[in-house]
Amino acid sequence: LIYLSGYAFYSFYALLPGIYNSLTFSASQFRLTMSRADKSGIAAEAHAKIQSKYNCQLAEQILKWISDVSNQQDLNTDGSMENFINVLKDGTVLCRLANALQPGAIKKINDSKMAFKQMENINHFLNFAETVVGIPKTESFMTVDLYEAQDPNSVLICLSSVARKAEKFNKPSLGPKEAQGEKREWTEEQIRAGECVIGLQYGSNKGATQAGMNIGKSRHIILNE
């Protein structure tokens, strides 16, 4: 028993440096996140350009859609950038939206005030949006785009994409209806016939040609007598 206890203590002691480094890294990472310096110069201009793409009217429509679909009637649906970020920042509203579209999609929603727990909620929603809803990565966003308000417009793009695809979950959609793909099956005979067709990249004889041109011929001058 003494030997086993000593071995267990030694194993735990050996893991302490890794645990300490992990906690230290997480703490320093969040301190860096919360104390990010204000942008200046070209970076400030680029950030202002990104922020200018934000659409207050679309944000209000998105928040109202989330409120209706997920039955979160107490949601503040004001479309201002400040309210949009404050409502979605902790990720709980997004997680409830995911569970409204597909029950049980996110099993645990963190109600903690801790930063990494809130960012974990956002990551859960992003994973749901990409793997279950099927939005392309080009229409997704990074956690800091929402949590630090780095790019609220990219959050709008992502939620708009999710809203357009809501019909597949038997929920009301928002925005233009997406085109449905039409699957076709070809017989072997049709496939072989298609291989015999000469594509336009090989050229065409249906347009202008050089027929009747005299390039390269000698010029004959006939004098009238």
Question: Which helices and strands, and how do they pair?
Answer:
Layout: H1 2-34, H2 42-51, H3 56-69, H4 81-88, H5 92-101, H6 115-133, H7 143-147, H8 152-164, H9 188-195
Helix pairs in contact: 3-8, 5-6
InterPro entries: Calponin-like (IPR050606), Calponin_repeat (IPR000557), CH_dom (IPR001715), CH_dom_sf (IPR036872), SM22_calponin (IPR003096)
GO biological process, one term: actin filament organization
Domain Calponin-homology (CH): 56-167
Look up the CATH topology of one domain.
Answer: Actin-binding Protein, T-fimbrin, domain 1
- Mean pLDDT rating: 79
β content, as a range? under 5%
What's the gyration radius in Å? 31 Å
Identify the CATH class of one domain: Mainly Alpha
Count, helices: 9
Name the structural class.
Answer: mainly alpha
Q: What's the count of strands?
A: 0
Order of helices and strands: HHHHHHHHH
Largest sheet: none
CATH architecture of one domain: Orthogonal Bundle
Helix content: 40-55%
CATH superfamily of one domain: Calponin-like domain
Terminal Cα span: 133 Å
Shape: elongated
Low-confidence stretches: 7-13, 18-34
